[in-house]
Design goal:
The complex is a heterodimer of chains A (223) and B (208).
Chain A: H1 2-17, H2 19-38, H3 44-66, H4 72-76, H5 79-85, H6 90-103, H7 106-119, H8 127-151, H9 159-185, H10 191-221
Chain B: E1 8-17, E2 20-30, E3 35-39, H1 46-53, E4 61-66, E5 69-70, E6 82-85, H2 97-107, H3 114-120, H4 136-144, H5 146-149, E7 154-157, H6 166-181, E8 185-189, E9 202-205
Parallel strand pairs in B: 3-8, 3-9, 6-7, 7-8
Antiparallel strand pairs in B: 1-2, 1-4, 4-5
Classes of the chains: A mainly alpha (223), B alpha/beta (208).
Chain lengths: 223, 208
């Protein structure tokens, strides 16, 4: 357990040191959302109709942009070897890395969501559901993305393969996440899709670290 | 020490990279207090051998045991007994030597005195400087400062003397000799001989 805390602290410290990079991802999320309306008709109903999809697509793209940060620097500087040899189980260390990654990305999107939602003309009553949907969904992006990054770690330019691998796995999150928002905007109960998102999160939380740890080992065992 | 027999043993070890055989039928056996220096040409497989011995990588044939337990079958066989310093330093450029060392020592379950270990490596003045600003030799020293905080019995060091100056090599040699005299086991690779005070390391030369 001390390894988990040590790694979490270190990664959060790194987030502070590498503020610029984090800011870049947040800015990207905001830019996608603010630029989109400029490219369409100035119509409030249209904007309201696409707002859920827009929020989620921006979050997905921002996640994809930053996923490599999870393991690649540690792979290149040898830290990952040390993580593999640690007495703390590797899956727990993976969880620490994803937790730090989410705190510096997904959580910020959740906190920004009310501002962005109002910007898109979403009624205030839908905002709690929008935040809930992002709160339940964004950790899944990191957890599932970690599997993809771990699998493609030994490949020199893994960007395209990574996208192909994990986008299909992101689809359920997109459907239920945007579905919950859509329901809330239309004044309908949103608990159904939110429960589905919560179930996906629990599934990812329990299985993804194990899968990621196994995928990381492959990079070393048969190197 | 728990046992006086050999602690680290390898039997009929063979590894290949891609389709190229690196070494085969390699046996080694190290008892408490012994050091071994592994030499060989570039690309002969020194790093692969070390990674195989510490359990990071699976051998194509053969097995490695530590105190009787198979390193590749029993995941906890080495546990806190191992200190591995690889070819890469495992040093993050955005963290200071102190922060790097503290994380690495906590990760391997130890909690030694980080400041005095850095001081022992002559890094007192740059303890709080981001590692980005340090020279290659200084960064190597940060990695080697782990020797001072570790309580592991088995040290596996990959080119520990790379980028070090004469004084740094002296510090390293003294650490290795001290560890062996306390009953530890040290394995290291090197290009040019590292002269250890008081003890004579075994030599293993691998060639394809």
């Amino acid at each position: 357990m001390s390894g988990f805390i040590a790694l979490l602290q270190r990664d959060l410290l790194l987030v502070l040191r590498q503020r610029g990079e984090i800011l870049h991802h947040v800015l990207f999320f905001l830019l996608v959302i603010t630029l989109f309306p400029l490219g369409t008709r100035p119509s409030a109903t249209l904007l309201l109709a696409v707002a859920p999809a827009l929020l989620w697509v921006a979050a997905l793209l921002a996640a994809l942009l930053s996923l490599q940060r999870l393991f690649r620097p540690d792979f290149e500087d040898g830290t990952l070897e040390q993580l593999m040899l640690s007495t703390t189980p590797l899956s727990l260390l993976v969880l620490a890395k994803v937790a730090a990654y989410w705190l510096a990305g997904g959580l910020i999107f959740v906190l920004l969501a009310p501002v962005v939602a109002l910007l898109l003309g979403v009624p205030g009553t839908a905002i709690p559901v929008i935040m809930c949907s992002l709160l339940l969904g964004t950790p899944v992006l990191g957890l599932v993305g970690a599997i993809g990054v771990a699998l493609t770690l030994s490949l020199p330019r893994a960007g395209m393969l990574l996208s192909l691998l994990i986008f299909p796995l992101y689809v359920p999150v997109l459907i239920f996440g945007a579905g919950a928002m859509q329901a809330a905007i239309n004044g309908l109960p949103a608990s159904g899709p939110l429960f589905m998102l919560a179930a996906i999160l629990v599934l990812a939380l329990t299985l993804a670290p194990l899968a990621t740890a196994a995928a990381l080992r492959i990079n070393f065992e048969y190197a | 020490m728990a046992s006086l027999g050999p602690e680290l043993q390898a039997h009929g070890l063979g590894c290949q990279r891609g389709h190229r055989a690196l070494f085969s039928d390699l046996d080694l056996s190290l008892s408490p207090g012994q050091a071994m220096q592994i030499t060989g040409e570039n690309g002969a497989g020194k790093t692969t051998l070390l990674k195989t011995l510490c359990g990071l990588r699976r051998p194509e044939v053969g097995r490695v045991t530590w105190r009787g337990l198979d390193v590749h079958e029993a995941p906890a066989a080495l546990g806190t007994d191992l200190l591995y310093i690889g070819h890469e330093n495992a040093i993050n450029p955005d963290l200071s030597p102190r922060e790097n060392l503290r994380m690495l020592s906590r990760l391997s379950g130890g909690g030694g005195d980080v400041a005095s270990a850095l001081k022992g490596m002559g890094l007192l003045r740059v303890m709080r400087t981001p590692c980005r600003a340090l020279s290659a030799g200084q960064r190597r020293r940060v990695a080697l400062a782990r020797l001072g905080v570790s309580s592991a019995a088995l040290w596996i060091l990959d080119e520990p003397a790379a980028a070090l100056d004469t004084q740094g090599r002296g510090l390293l040699a003294a650490q290795i000799a001290k560890h062996a005299s306390r009953g530890g086991v040290v394995l290291f690779t090197t290009h040019d001989r590292l002269d250890l005070p008081e003890i004579t390391p075994q030599e293993l030369r691998i060639s394809a």
